[in-house]
Amino acid sequence: MEINLEHGAGGKLTHELFNSIFYKAFKNKILEKAGDKAILRFGSTRIAFTTDAFVMAPKKVSGCTIGKLSVTGTVNDLLTCGAIPMYLSASFIIEEGYPIANLSEIVRDMSETAKISGVSIVTGDTKVVERGKADGVYVITSGIGKVIKNSNVSGSNAEPGDVIVVSGPVGTHGTVVMLARGEFGLYSSVSSDCCPLNDLVIPLIKKYGKKIKVIRDPTRGGLATTLNEIAKESKVGMVVEESKIPVLEEVKSACEVLGIDFLSMANEGIMVFIVDAKIKEKFLKDLRNNPKGRLASVIGKVVSDKEKKVVLSTSVGGERILDMAKGLPLPRIC
Amino acid sequence: MEINLEHGAGGKLTHELFNSIFYKAFKNKILEKAGDKAILRFGSTRIAFTTDAFVMAPKKVSGCTIGKLSVTGTVNDLLTCGAIPMYLSASFIIEEGYPIANLSEIVRDMSETAKISGVSIVTGDTKVVERGKADGVYVITSGIGKVIKNSNVSGSNAEPGDVIVVSGPVGTHGTVVMLARGEFGLYSSVSSDCCPLNDLVIPLIKKYGKKIKVIRDPTRGGLATTLNEIAKESKVGMVVEESKIPVLEEVKSACEVLGIDFLSMANEGIMVFIVDAKIKEKFLKDLRNNPKGRLASVIGKVVSDKEKKVVLSTSVGGERILDMAKGLPLPRIC
After folding, report:
1. Nearest to A30 among B49, B97, B122 (CB)
2. What is the CATH class of A34-147?
3. % residues pLDDT > 90 (chain A)
4. pTM above 0.90, yes or no
5. What is the rounded average pLDDT of the residues B90-108?
6. From the list A87, A123, A128, which residue is nearest B36 (CB)?
7. Residue A294: is its pLDDT beyond 70?
8. Domain locations in chain A?
9. Selecting from 3.30.360.10, 3.90.650.10, 3.90.1150.10, 3.40.309.10, what CATH number does the domain A163-321 have?
10. Chain B residues with CB inside 8 Å of A9's CB?
11. Which of A154, A193, B276, B322 gets the most CB atoms within 10 Å of its CB?
12. Is the CB of residue A301 less than 8 Å from the CB of residue A231?
């Protein structure tokens, strides 16, 4: 058995790899709770810890560069822990012959994004590999944040009756990167949604505390994968109304032409929230008051379902099961 | 200007790259203090934070695999902060077509080394890149540890009068990896020193507290680079007696044949300590009582010198300046 590109697409095969190889070997409660982030306790302080490797190709698309993304991705990951992002590490794996000017540009983008996000890049490492053993440069960041008092978000906290909210249109980043590769002969004027979301998320956590049950950034594998992850972790089902899911018209048409579900495409500037139904209206209003959340929408609700299915009510009145992304060899989106 | 292999060798060119690109852009006090590790304060708790990318080629040499190294390197890095290593993250960049069985072996080695080191791998990420865009797999780990109370180690703490101690023979890991590549037609029966040093270092920190001024793992760039880094950070000079530096006979001869200074070769299982001269005898005895430190040696002393030179007293009675490693395109040693 060999690794194939779909193992890196974030969907079903990625999850299988995690379960069969990593979880089994590294077995510990923190990892099992949520593989892509960890909450560590030091006395009464809760520290969020997360890591991501960035191999995006191409390294620059409208609205996003690998430098911007490498900070944004980890900052947003920390936010999903209910944490204030504080410190980042940065490792670089660089191919021999890579122009130092390009490296400087990446580092400049990282620095600018760090400034906007209020984080410091406090430690790092650089390795060089021979020509043909990388693709220019790969950037790996890890992040540390302090979990906000009174916040308690976790993928396993969703309960029947809670509502599902997305903060903006879905599928944009993945579609923009895919089209930028030019393989499909389709072009688009849309920009990636890549953007650190501190100013959107932190005030909401401070205001609503434990009424926010889950926060997730639907990156690789898209909204479809994220909702299925939460359903599985919380042992619940979900009913989502297709017509309520915000999506940019251009993203939707491009995906239709290519026969790809935009719900499986990566996002880098939106969040999925599962919140107590009681705060629904106020929460949505607060989201929409921020330009980054102006297209926010309540897209469905959490239901009791032993089979942990995510059901999509389609606009034509039908229903279909929304599964984790699969069959999509879409690596290097992030 | 392009990145070349020497930029990744850990010596002079690596430092130049750090200073001209990274430090300048990411400018902050924590990074400036010591780029390859950070001490973060959360209330009265001091957290050590460090990261390393591992691109070792070949992935398996006598005594070391990329899996073992990826945990050992970060564990030892945390120890040099005076910290108890606690949590690790692990990111993988995997080339399409890489056998899952090999990935499992790497993960198994990581898991075993984590167990020995008392650390948990609590979070991770996996990315897949196309054939020809990596070399099998690269592993990136970040680590978090809790700084031991009463410990205060830093590269800038060395003072004239302090003594310099190494815990074991130098140059072994780098030489073993270089010979294993087979490029030079030289072979050796020596094993890498790769080994987590918790049981050697932690009791010493607890016992001697602030009398231990500096702890460093002389990895890429070897002892020569590490001593120069400390001299620079502490604004002191050093006098080192060549005859006191422990080195395995086979490592010494292999390096002689190749015209390489073993003092510039990477280590993965020894530490350099700068300690108060008053504890010299006891400290050395304690080191030697542990099998990992049985060849420990006091190799020299810290002196006052505005030019921050490291001077090597040679066995034949002469003196030479020991500079940071340079002119050695030796990437992918770790």
Report:
1. B122
2. alpha beta
3. 84
4. yes
5. 97
6. A123
7. yes
8. 34-147, 163-321
9. 3.90.650.10
10. 128
11. A193
12. no
